[in-house]
Amino acid sequence: MKINVKVGDFRQEETDAVAFGIYEGENSLTPLTESVDQALGGAIRNLMELGDFEGKLKQVATLYTDGKVSSPRISLIGYGKIEEFDQESIRQVSAKHMQSLRDLGVKRITVPIPDDISRLHVEAIVEGAKLGLYTFDQHKTEGLDEKKELEELTFLLADESGMSAIEQSIELATAITDGTILARDLINQPANYLTPAILAEKAQSVAKEKDLKCEIFNLAKLQEEKFGAMLGVSQGSLEEPRFVILEYGFEEADKKDTLVLVGKGITFDSGGLSLKSSGGMETMKDDMAGAAAVLGAMQAIGGFKPDLHVVGLIAASENMPSGTAQRPGDVVTSYGGKTIEILNTDAEGRLVLADALGYANNFNPKAVIDLATLTGAVVTSLGRYAAGVMGTNQKLVDQLILAAEKTHERVWQLPLWDDYEEALKSEVADIKNTGDGTAGAIAGGIFLKKFTEDYPWIHIDIGGTAFDIKGSSYISKGGSGYGARLLIQFVRDWC
Predict the structure, then answer these.
(1) What 3-state class would DSSP assign to 346?
(2) How far is the C-alpha of 333 from the C-alpha of 229, rounded, in Å?
(3) What contacts 429, CB < 8 A, 6 or more positions away?
(4) Reduced to 3 states, what is the DSSP secondary structure of residue 240?
(5) pLDDT tens across 289-304, in order?
């Protein structure tokens, strides 16, 4: 969808529909919507007096103009109560509005905006529109000729005074949504279309497009660097692992704050020899959602260019059963030298992250954040509405929680108390990869903590938020892209 901004009068706008928001309640018409009502001979007030449109949140109505203005349609969307209308409401309203117009067959839509509109308001409209219109149909061959698409969104200003700021907001929001859409596309790809090698190739492509530094460790390099935990996970698969290192702001990196983003990239998780049930494997192409979020965030960061050194690390592997797969009871040595007893081969994500988090220390980071579809236990605890967050620096955790509130990619903090460490003690190695069956999400965090002792660290368990079974508002069915916008906001706030 093409997004434009121009100066003009909605009455003369040659477009398929002009869109306006209406608040719920008395005196709900703003000066802008009052002018629309006057142009239509009181049609909006008549509609509201009849009770056919009340301005309730996401309520939609279409008025046909009969030549009173140039556009054949005036489209109304309910903003809900003005005191409850916030950034997240705007995203949801925008998504609903664009979806309804697309379903009508509208190709071009114009959104007049008042002079006092905030940049954040414009960002939210763009985010809701682009993410709400997202579909994944790369592997469909039927019905594509009948697919309806909204092709052009135009913001209409009364004068040029605010045009530059609006253009900047559109550019930033486009970078954010494009990064999120990249993450969604990657998560939605079947595992036979997205192997560790293909994921690494995609990272290379993003790096080339956004002028990022990119280095990829193949199997031989991983063996040379002694990524023992990651190699253990991959040894049951015919697909070789890859470790991706992306850097933005690497020029004079020693003069900038360094943030490291780490993503779990299990492109398919069978459970290994601790085999999942067939039903438990149905969505396991999504086990690389952490890596997808990191790559999406790095793409966006390369677009809006913060004054930081940002590193993206992706640990990509398959976890498969075979005669060469690692066994329960095996001991592996992680990058950095810690030994790990493998009790459950289906607790593989923490193993690839152990090596990645160990490697992160090479960058002398101010903060390290990892994202991973780490546990089913976090779904039991928090459902699909929030990710579990744990960390060793409360100030950073608080910063992340604030970013989560801004993006509505919500998190809930879980403890990392020393009391939980007893369950991970091993008789034969430094640590074992599973606990005692209780507090599963926390046990995963406690395990990872052991590999992050040299820097401030945050862990985000996105097991419940990475893949949406039903879809809602601007969150599509399938891969949600959760985490990309959250990481981007965290980086923006750091600056």
Answers:
(1) coil
(2) 6
(3) 331, 339, 340, 341
(4) coil
(5) 999 999 999 999 999 9
Query: What's the pLDDT at 476?
Result: 85
Q: Return all residues near 171 (Cβ < 8 A) that are at least 6 apart.
A: 303, 304
CA 217 to CA 237: how far, in whole Å? 17
Q: Tell me which residues are annotated as active site.
A: 276, 350
Q: What is the C-alpha to C-alpha distance for residues 315 and 263, in angstroms, rounded to an integer?
A: 7
Q: Are 322 and 236 in contact (CB under 8 A)?
A: yes
- The pLDDT, as a whole number, for residue 162 is 86
Count CB atoms within 10 A of the CB of residue 371: 30
95-117: pLDDT as tens digits: 999 999 999 999 999 999 987 78
What does the pLDDT read at residue 469?
A: 74
Residue recorded with tokens 């509005």: 97
Rounded distance, CA 446 to CA 443, Å?
A: 5
In the chain, what are the domains?
2-157 (3.40.220.10), 175-494 (3.40.630.10)
State pTM to two decimals: 0.97
Residue 41: left if φ>0, alpha if ψ -120 to 50, beta else—which one? left
Q: What does the block give as tokens for 118?
A: 């905030």
pLDDT 10s digits, 444-454 = 999 999 999 99
